[in-house]
Amino acid sequence: MDIGSIVLAGGKGLRLGYEKALETVGNKSLIQWVVSSLSFFSSDIIIVTAAKQFFPQFIDYPKLKMVTDAYPGKGPLGGIYTGLAASDSSYNLVVACDMPFLNQALLDYMIQISASFDLVVPRLGNMVEP
What is the DSSP string of 34-60? Predict the structure, then answer.
């Protein structure tokens, strides 16, 4: 199965005062943790950014592509659309840049069942997860 990955990193960082993707946990930025986790499932990773954002720490990832959100200010849906439009994959994992502790077993399960559904979204009880 052809799996792509899309990381939404176009937030304004208003609460922090800077891009939250660059906040560090341990020895890596949040976005580095996310890309590292997704690389187990896909070498084709797309980072959707706001205008003028650049993450130089990914310069050595040959299959990583950075695209600018085609619908700035429209929230995550604009970023999801932009990422899907830029993807060559039939199936895509879509995650936010501030999720350093992605559950790889859950992502693997979602991939396994994805062929039977148009969309797979995790939930805990009746609460749909972001």
Answer: HHHHHTTT-S-EEEEE-TT---GGGTT
